[in-house]
Amino acid sequence: MRVLVCVKQVRALGDEVEFTADGTDVDPDYLDAALNEWDSYATEEALCVREAHGGEVVAVTCGPKESEAALRRCLAMGADRALRVDGVESHDPLCVARALAEVVREESPDLVLCGVQSSDSVQAATGTALAGLAGLPHVAVVTKLELGTGSARVHRELEGGLLDVVDVDLPALLTIQTGINQPRYANLRAIKQAEQVEIAVRQAGDTAAGSRVRRMFVPSRGDAAEMLGGDPAEVARRIAEIVRERVA
Amino acid sequence: MSVVVVAEHLRGEVREVTHELVSAGESLGPVSVALIARDPTPLIAAVNVEGVSEIVTLAAGADEFESDTYEQALEALIAERKPRIVLVGFTVNAMGYASAVAARLGLGFASDVHQVSLEGDAVIATRSFYGGKVDAEVEFPGAETVILALRPTVWAPAEGVGSAGVSSLDLSLSPARARHVEFLEPAAASDVDITQADFLFSVGRGIGDADALPELEALATRMGGTLSVSRPVVDAGWMPSSRQVGQSGKTVKPKVYLALGISGAVQHLAGMKSSGTIIAVNTDPEAAIFGVAHYGAVADLFDVVEELEKLY
């Protein structure tokens, strides 16, 4: 069984923000990178499938050389190999999905796992778009996976926690929700070994986007919170006061 | 500027987000509501609200949502009507089909959109990036049709009784490859019902590990409140999902919601932003939770907890 896991090196914004000269993105100096949280669950699920059914786990990402850090994290967790698609620099999920569709065509996986969404963009769209392009049956927001022969039974987590039990034909694409498993930690030795692994690189072909950011900005907080100043003792005193006053 | 709203329904009930989409669509152009179900007829009345010009029934597939059915039905409708804008909810169902249609047909697409405007013929959508700390205006150059997944609870739901005409579109679909089997109810609250509490003492990822929870719960109780949590605490297995506030957990509206170490992911905010008074404590002054809070403090939650313990 070949499981393809699509992952993203996400970028988190700290306390301060500056924008790029053209105003369409945050200056990269103000961003910290990490493997997307949802993708660590997808990677763990792929490793569990391999452990139960044999085969290999292939991790793929779209992005510049720096995004290989996300792939090395997957390799350290236990992925067998990794590849990166270069030439995709967009916030646009359709653009990323088109680049990944070429990898799916080449790798012919039995199962494709993606995270539900990325923490920096929250589009919840790349996996489903990829399934559409690759012609794969698919289920989004999966919290349980049981592989059968020719099909899988999955739980789709709806609003309010209601679970939709779905039978999906294989090969399929699933977008994986956090909490489906407990992602394993990579030990230091595995992290060191992963640094030595050669990552295959390919150029993206068609990456037509579905959207383009024309301006990024800090939103005005019209009726912003009243900030409680002072030391923690003063903050606690005010909180106690508000709670007593409002909870009759 | 024609607008198609894809109605969302579950177990025979039209979901409120559908009426929010109508309300958002009304300001953009005449709204047609698409009803996709094995038998759409019983759902017609519930989507015939003020602001709807037309209801299009697409009798197809199963009673409940299946991605293949929605994709094929929406593709057929887009081919027939060539709408300028298709509105869907930023919901679990739409996460399962909307971007597939947009990718296959080469449409414009954006999700978790919280503002839409028109500049002449151009559609401009506003959505957030980087943990809700920045917003972006997104445009769709060259796209004749744009699919927008709108953030729930932003637009006020359309109400009243409309006078929309009903038409139908015949479909011949291939069988669904992902099939609804049954629903399983979320685990019932075995101990407390957080939706009934007047005061929720809510903690998130900021607590670091599970060790602090007994002490935090004891403090919550002494303060007359109930302990609730954000999703990462449940994902880590530290608390049962019955205590979870947010889109995939409980929607709560206590008199006071105290958020300690919760950054305010959009799915969390959806579940608590209607609370009477929201107090947020976070070490990150730019945390999105401060955008919905009435009172905020930039502080370490454990420093504040230590001081609260002296008071209770």
Explain how this protein is built.
The complex is a heterodimer of chains A (248) and B (312). With 248 residues, chain A is an alpha/beta fold. Chain A has helices at 37-53, 68-77, 93-107, 126-134, 188-196, 232-246, and strands at 2-7, 9-13, 31-35, 56-62, 81-86, 111-115, 138-147, 151-157, 163-169, 172-176, 200-203, 212-217, 226-227. In chain A, strand 7 and strand 8 form a beta hairpin. The longest helix of chain A has 17 residues, at 37-53. The N and C termini of chain A lie far apart (60 Å). The model of chain A has no long low-confidence stretch (mean pLDDT 94). Chain B is an alpha/beta fold. Chain B has two domains: 3-168, 3-Layer(aba) Sandwich (Rossmann fold), CATH 3.40.50; 194-311, 3-Layer(aba) Sandwich (Rossmann fold), CATH 3.40.50.1220. Chain B has helices at residues 16-26, 44-47, 67-81, 92-95, 98-105, 213-222, 231-235, 266-272, 301-311, and strands spanning 3-6, 9-10, 13-14, 31-37, 52-59, 85-89, 108-119, 122-129, 134-139, 146-150, 165-168, 178-184, 199-203, 226-229, 256-260, 277-282, 295-298. Chain B has a nine-stranded mixed β-sheet, with helices on both faces. A five-stranded parallel β-sheet of chain B has the order 14-13-15-16-17. Chain B has a two-stranded antiparallel sheet with strand order 2-3. In chain B, strand 8 (122-129) and strand 9 (134-139) form a beta hairpin. In chain B, helix 3 crosses helix 5. The relative contact order of chain B is 0.12. At the A-B interface, strand 2, helix 3, helix 4, strand 7 and strand 8 of A face helix 3, helix 4, helix 5, strand 7 and strand 8 of B. Strand 13 of chain A pairs parallel with strand 17 of chain B.
